[in-house]
Amino acid sequence: MSRPTPQGHPELVTLGEVMAVAAATSPGPLATGAPLRLGWAGAEATVAVGVSRLGHTSAWTGRVGEDATGAMVLAGLRAEGVDVSGARADPTAPTGLMLRERRTADRLRVTYYRAGLAGSRLAPEDLDEARIARARILHVTGITPALSPTARAAVERAVTVARAAGVTVSFDVNHRERLWSRAEAADALGHVLPYADIVFAGPEEAALFVPEGEPERMARALTRLGPAQAVLKLGADGALAVADGALHVRRAVPVTAVDPVGAGDAFVSGYLAAALDGSPVPERLRLAALCGAFAVSVPGDWEGLPRRAELGLLAAQDISR
């Protein structure tokens, strides 16, 4: 991670879908007059925000609609310091929507309206290949290739450009069963995995590519498919990483969880920010675990992501230091 970034260019570049979010603010079924909070969310954008809050530069590429919610998304990302100069407002399709219902106090129900909408129209011609080639990290997820053939082609082109330029490729499997089957995901994402230097996955996601088993064994198997680092996110059990053959284990930071959505992306943002810091793998896992703990402690996908000055707030809970 010692490759310098030319001055004025973002250190982390990512691409994908961001949707508007209408989230219930109180438990119960959605009904006329139910209070909702309007916001926005996207896996890759959450990583870009997290990296930016931790002091590094980031950029997001994607499409939103030429509508009020699209303008809200771009304004929100700019406010978080994310470069959206490569984003596009599409006049032919609206911004997607995520409807989040808090059906009971501890059960969320999420409905997506995204098929054929602006985010799914991402295409290779939307990429700034020179920007990708000048970055230190390109981050992609398995969500974007599931959205459409053109979005899949954009991800495949991006990782090809990054690999050719010597840019570190970060790949979060992030399998979404509502978008495609496990067989479809394994086939498509199997073309992305060999380009990755760092792969993030949960055990079920790792099983798309390697036999099920102990997390360490699965992580080691992933590294044999190309990535030098395989990081398995284990939820409340923490995480482990196999990096250049060495095993590193990290416990989760115990907190009161109020919203699990976005925790995995927060974890990734911490890991990648520490990588940009030049920190070793144990420190990357420490910062990743802290970011995940902050995220689940606050309602929303990215809103709880920490800034550097706030990391000490959970220091007492970090029992795995």
From TrEMBL:
Pfam family, one: PfkB
GO molecular function: kinase activity
Keyword Nucleotide-binding: yes
PROSITE patterns, per database record: PFKB_KINASES_2
Origin: domain of life: Bacteria
Family according to the record: Belongs to the carbohydrate kinase PfkB family.
Protein name in the entry: Sugar kinase
